[in-house]
Design brief:
- The chain is of the alpha+beta class.
- It has three helices and six strands; from the N terminus they run H-H-E-E-H-E-E-E-E.
- Strands 2-1-6-5-4-3 form a six-stranded mixed sheet.
Length: 109
């Protein structure tokens, strides 16, 4: 990765995503974690897994971070997303809950 200072657990999460580690991806979220993908919300492991299998990890995505903003437990990573499902500059906003992710919101970067 670049010299961007991305805090944990977000930095590890990005490494897990880029390694296409399905289990590690799911384990990064709290049990009631939420993914908001352009307004579509997926809460809990089963819903997140079903979404990810098709559109995220299953789409062999790679996130190349270009900017990071940290404000307490809120971390926003903007970068280039490349996958078999969607491509382009995207914003990934994370809410950290302890050592896990409580929420990931994906929007245009």
């Amino acid at each position: 990765m670049s010299d961007l200072q991305i805090p944990e657990p977000v930095a590890g999460f990005i490494d897990t995503v880029n390694a296409h580690d399905d289990q590690g991806f799911l384990d990064a979220f709290t049990s009631d974690g939420v993914v908001d993908d352009w307004g579509r919300e997926f809460q809990g492991r089963e819903a997140i897994k079903a979404w990810s299998d098709k559109e995220f990890i299953g789409a062999t995505g790679i996130l190349t971070p270009e900017e990071v903003t940290v404000d307490g437990n809120d971390v926003i990573v903007v970068g280039d997303w490349r996958s078999t499902h969607a491509n382009g500059r995207s914003s990934f906003a994370f809410i950290i809950d302890g050592d896990k992710l409580g929420r990931m919101t994906i929007r245009e970067g």
